[in-house]
Amino acid sequence: MPRPDFPKTILEFQARFGDEQACLDYLLVCRWPEGFVCPRCQGRKAWPVTTRALWECADCHRQTSLTAGTVLHKTHLPLQTWFWAAYLMTTSTPGISAVQLQRQLGLSRYESAWTMLHKLRRAMVNPERTLLTGEVEVDECEVGGVEKGRSGGRSRIAKAAHVVVAVEVRGQGSGRIRMHVIPDASGPTLYNFVHETVAPGAVVHTDGWGPYVLLAKKGYDHRPRSQRAAKRTGNTEPVMPRVHRAISDFKSWLRGTHRAVSKEHLQVYLDEFVFRYNRRRSPMSAFQSLLGLESHHEPTTFREIVAQGPGTTRAT
User: Looking at the record's lineage, which domain of life comes first (predicted)?
Assistant: First the structure.
């Protein structure tokens, strides 16, 4: 059974997911698009357990939850609330803060809204993401702190977080992007990011920052170009405009939507920005990913999210 197109308006969304049963029906289609299949015996016949979101196999009687492996598993909130949260997060161009989500969903506790958003952000991560290909621009920046530069263009601010960014070149525009918090801007750190992000054989464009020379030594087609050298030769073409635009857009988005973000949780906000950018033309795919319908997710609690911090995951 094919999944329906993404609702284009709030009224369409309300009509499609107007009650808990509609949400359960949608989960059923997403989990078993070709019909029920028992994970234990591969049986094809089952009946619903009406008191819970479970289906019981007619052959081996194993009960399987529709929400298992999704961010909805073991939730105490209505499915409708989660569906609305994912919809608002998907369709709101600048994103949505926990305060805004709490107000729009009528949640009594701020912690509930904050936990929902962080669970949804963790669902943005795809451990099997594909590597960037073709030509790729790579640069680093600092987020937070008082941004005062020094000779060479890299700051020594202790409070700022180092972030490295990669952007695919697609004609005059940009393809997919990747962003990750890094401990420093050293050669080994930058190489590890490129190695985990960019496919072998890709052309990697960077500025003239010295540690990038390690890329060529490791076999990458590295093509550095500094702004100063370009000016000396009279070349007025912008140096790496796509990655610089991505960095600028991220900082503007972070300031405009979330204002204050802890350094410990910065990675999940990078993940959200990357997810939004890479799925900007696929709202239904984004919606399904947020609910955890395209990959497996273990349930997490508010305390676990606070204790674990951002982890080392990356968005697709």
Answer: Bacteria
Ramachandran assignment for 234, one of left (phi > 0), alpha (psi -120 to 50 degrees), beta (any other): left
161 closest CA partner among 176, 146, 143, 178: 143
Is 160 exposed, middle or buried, given 0-12, 13-18 or 19+ CB atoms closer than 10 A?
Answer: middle
Distance of alpha carbon 199 from alpha carbon 152, whole angstroms: 29
Nearest to 79 by CA among 303, 291, 288: 291
* Mean pLDDT score of the chain: 85
The C-alpha atoms of residue 169 and residue 78 are separated, in whole angstroms, by: 42
Helix locations, the chain, DSSP H:
10-16, 20-31, 79-91, 98-105, 110-122, 187-197, 213-217, 227-232, 241-253, 266-278, 283-290, 302-308
Q: What is the CA radius of gyration of the chain?
A: 22
Cα angle 261, 262, 264; round to 5: 135
Residues 141 and 166: beta-carbon distance below 8 Å: no
What tokens does 218 get? 């490791």
CA atoms within 13 A on the CB side of 240: 26
Domains along the sequence of the chain with CATH: 135-248 (3.30.420)
pLDDT one-digit tens code per residue, 161-187? 999 999 999 999 999 999 999 999 999
Section 55-59 average pLDDT: 96
Q: Any residues with CB less than 8 A from the CB of 212 and at least 6 apart, and which? A: 138, 187, 190, 206, 222, 224
- What is the distance between the alpha carbons of residues 90 and 211, in angstroms, rounded to a whole number? 38
Taking the model in full, what pTM does it have? Answer: 0.78
CB contact at 8 A, 119 and 300: yes
Long-range contacts of 150-159 (CB under 8 A, 24+ apart): 152/209, 153/207, 153/209, 154/185, 154/209, 159/263
Contact by Cβ (8 Å): 301, 182: no
Confirm if 113 and 101 have CB atoms less than 8 A apart. yes
At residue 282 the predicted structure's pLDDT band, cuts being 50, 70 and 90, is confident
